[in-house]
Design goal:
The chain is α+β, with helices and mostly antiparallel strands. The chain is built from 6 helices and 12 strands.
Amino acid sequence: MTIRPGPRNSITDIAGLLVGQAEDLAARTGVTVLLPEMRCTAAVDVRGGAPGTRDTDALDPTCLVEAIDAVVLSGGSVHGLEAASGVVAWLAARGRGHPVGNVRVPIVPAAILFDLTNGGDKGWGDTPPYRALALAACDAAAAEVRQGNAGAGTGAKTATCKGGLGTASAVDPETGVTVGALVVANPVGAVTMPDGTFWAWPWEQAGEFGGPHRPTGPAEPEPVLFRHPTQPGPGGNTTIGIVAVDAALTKAEAQRLAIMAQDGLARAIRPVHTPMDGDTVFALATGAVPLPEARAVALARIGAIAADCVARAIARGVWHAGTLGPHTAWREKYGKP
């Protein structure tokens, strides 16, 4: 049985998940919000050496909160964490959140990437745009997901070309589970071999990032890091993302899913999880599809598929990205369709 993408090839192939995005093009930054229609089981895995996150401790399987209301991915480094406050306000105004007595407390974990030195106008004084961008993203939430220079991927970059936001999905015919990924690629490392071939090329589905791809020369035998004439110096970076399934998972199982999904970063980026990256992957489970009786085997299967989706989403985000300032688009730089 062949594993294929869902109808949109998007994380929104999972019923009940919407994505909202908003950008500040002058500042070259933006916000992406994954907005479930119903609360979801969630977990997180953080592997980068310079993470910026909010409410990730609450996702530990030993902690009280069993479900979340939204996940935020944002540019802006520490300023971008304010985006989660905007989403909390948006949800609270609609009576959504974790029940505590007669009130609701929205649970909105978030992760940020560093895009402060990408050439955009960051002279916002004491009013960073992220709360307003988050409110606009929530209002714009829909099933269609813009890729490339969109939302949190607006100002993203990679070692060799413009970064961006990408999404991908897969339907597992064996378990009946749909798996999706939403990732913003902004790594200190490279997503391509020296000839421009995506490191993720073996996992491409139906030409989704311009393939079929095959390397035209040998792959770099050592980590590709700080060797490219046009590469910016090391600084704040980070790849952040979300994997989601429509399976019924516990928090501990969702955490294992997030751990396995991180392997997708290693398939698509070289090097990854460096001291300068804050690589973070959230995992969500909507609970619509029960796992088979052999739960561990099924979880291992969908975790492997999730890692593939993450790798594909990274390449798709870079392939869809357009040139922005000094950061050249992949298609422009490598002269490929």
